[in-house]
Amino acid sequence: YGSESRVDRRRWIYSHPKTDLEINHHVRQHEMFHGSCAMDPSVASKPFGDGVEFRVGVTVPDGTYEELYRLVLNPRADPNQLRWHDFWISLDKYDGKDIIIKNIFLFVFY
Predict the structure, then answer these.
(1) Is this model's pTM higher than 0.85 or not?
(2) How many whole angstroms separate alpha carbon 71 and alpha carbon 55?
(3) Residue-wise pLDDT tens for the chain (110 aa)?
(4) Residue 64, CA distances (Å) to 20, 75, 107 in order
(5) What is the DSSP letter of 47?
(6) Residue-wise burial string across 79-92, b where 16 or more C-beta atoms lie within 10 A, e elsewhere
(7) What is d(CA 1, CA 65) in angstroms, rounded to the nearest whole number?
(8) Cβ 95 vs Cβ 29: under 8 Å
(9) How far is it, in rounded angstroms, from Cα 24 to Cα 54?
């Protein structure tokens, strides 16, 4: 995304809903998880669809899951959503623990 004078280059994972991605991770003290959500600009011109829901959560070794972030994007209804949506999540609650960071992408239907 960006104009020719300022192009935003990022490493990214291209996936289609419904996708569940899991990352095993040992949390260091005062660690933050940084992520960004975006959709392919071509989706804004499609004649159908109600967007995608992005979720990020954590599963700890006992199997407990906690959702930490949720965002619904529908650039077909709001073209201003055609950009990167950055977020930062504090992992202080999990200092010193082994966790699974889960990224979930879902279709949204209304």
Answers:
(1) no
(2) 7
(3) 444 455 566 666 666 677 788 889 999 999 999 888 888 888 888 888 788 888 899 999 899 999 999 999 998 889 899 998 999 999 999 999 999 998 877 666 65
(4) 17, 33, 24
(5) S
(6) eebbbeeeeebebe
(7) 33
(8) yes
(9) 19
